[in-house]
Recover the amino acids of this structure.
């Protein structure tokens, strides 16, 4: 049976009613962590991100979102605990958007990134990426194209690392350009990775443990907007 992965990509800016709903389902620790953030914008992003993840997972599992619990794993990766253990989740946020994913049986990683202006993408690629990927970034026709190429590769690396539960820096040298299957360096393992449709000015990617294909549903406010077989790329995602 093919695994189906569900992903939300939703804006941080929501109505007061939605934000209140997200805050309502947080546990005491999450509320305390949100309150501990200095900037109001960061507090709102935390509340919406973690609340949205709870609502998504609760919807998929038929469980009350406020009753879900996570335990910290290796390198701090959260894993669902209690009677929901074995279901895998991932969360990412950047700029004005949040990405949340849930997988019923295989470790999953999701990442979303906005294009950061002024970033030295050529220098960072030369320092951290494999030589072929560094050349790919540097060959962009202008700064915008180079930032776009850099972000496309970066989100794939981040997604693989999040699925693996590892650390980013030891894995930046892992080649992901035009690859459906990626071998994570630390911890070692094989992952299927694909770019997914994202808002303008952003890139997003999903990674799933193992080499078997999967199906992907990208959702917005619980309304399915995209469904396709995921084989490590596709027309709607583009290749990286």
């Amino acid at each position: 049976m093919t695994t189906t992965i569900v992903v939300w990509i939703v804006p941080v800016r929501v109505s007061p009613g939605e934000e209140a709903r997200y805050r309502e389902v947080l546990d005491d620790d999450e509320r305390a962590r949100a309150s501990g953030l200095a900037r109001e914008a960061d507090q709102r992003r935390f509340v919406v991100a973690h609340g949205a993840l709870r609502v998504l997972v609760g919807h998929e599992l038929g469980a009350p979102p406020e009753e879900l619990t996570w335990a910290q794993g290796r390198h701090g990766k959260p894993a669902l605990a209690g009677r929901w253990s074995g279901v895998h989740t991932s969360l990412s946020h950047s700029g004005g958007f949040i990405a949340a994913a849930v997988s019923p049986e295989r470790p999953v990683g999701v990442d979303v990134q906005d294009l950061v202006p002024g970033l030295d993408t050529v220098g960072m690629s030369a320092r951290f990426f494999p030589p072929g990927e560094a050349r790919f970034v540097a060959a962009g026709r202008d700064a915008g194209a180079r930032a776009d190429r850099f972000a496309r590769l970066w989100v794939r690396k981040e997604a693989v690392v999040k699925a693996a539960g590892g650390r980013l820096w030891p894995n930046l040298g892992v080649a992901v350009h035009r690859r459906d299957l990626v071998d994570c360096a630390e911890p070692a393992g094989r992952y299927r990775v694909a770019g997914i449709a994202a808002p303008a000015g952003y890139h997003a990617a999903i990674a799933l443990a193992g080499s078997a294909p999967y199906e992907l549903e990208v959702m917005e406010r619980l309304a399915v907007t995209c469904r396709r077989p995921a084989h490590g790329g596709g027309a709607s995602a583009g290749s990286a």
